[in-house]
User: What shape does this take?
Amino acid sequence: MLDAEGRHVARVDLLYRRWKIAIEYDGDLHRTDRATWQGDIRKRRLLRALGWIVIVVVKADHDRPGPFLDDLRTAIRTRSTPAYELWA
Assistant: This one.
């Protein structure tokens, strides 16, 4: 992922560039490896500062995807408004 000046900022698991939505998967490594966990917190803070919506997904979302899908729909709806199109 690049910033407005074309510099590499971060790598995310899935993104919707059109709506500036990034989806990140937090597996068990985030629970067991402090550096991974802290690095992702910093990355997500930076992405949000650059105007991205960051949605975090965990294993339980695979079995019950409803809340994740609700968050994704809300984010897309938020970014699909005429006001956002003018701002972006």
About this structure: The two ends are 16 Å apart (CA to CA).
